[in-house]
Amino acid sequence: MKTISVKDLHDKTGHWLRRVKVEGEVIVTERGTPVARMLPPAKVAAGNPFARRKLLRGIAALMKRPIGGPDSV
């Protein structure tokens, strides 16, 4: 785990983001006090996360209704 200052993060943001991606956690300090922790993102499952969700009863009923009304032409 690496510790850096807020100023160093400000000056070299891209460098530190790449380093977090490769090496992992970086602690950011302000005047020696930890104020933030940068971590690489957690693994995200592939696929549509909404596919597993169930529709509320009212929404499911609305989806069965025909869309629109009489033509306006």
Could you report the average pLDDT, rounded to the nearest whole number? 87
* Strand order in the largest sheet: 1-2-3
Number of helices: 3
CATH superfamily of the domain at 1-40, please? YefM-like domain
Describe what you observe in this structure.
- Strand 2 and strand 3 form a beta hairpin.
- The chain has helices spanning 6-11, 13-23, 57-64; strands at 2-5, 26-30, 33-38.
- It is elongated.
- It has 73 residues and is of the alpha+beta class.
- Strands 1-2-3 form a three-stranded mixed β-sheet.
- The chain has a domain at 1-40: YefM-like domain (YefM-like fold, 3-Layer(aba) Sandwich).
- Helix content is 34%, strand content 21%.
Primary descriptors:
single chain, 73 residues, alpha+beta, YefM-like fold, three-stranded mixed β-sheet, 34% helix
Question: What is the structure about, briefly put?
Answer:
The protein has three helices and three strands.
SSE topology:
Elements: E1 2-5, H1 6-11, H2 13-23, E2 26-30, E3 33-38, H3 57-64
Parallel strand pairs: 1-2
Antiparallel strand pairs: 2-3
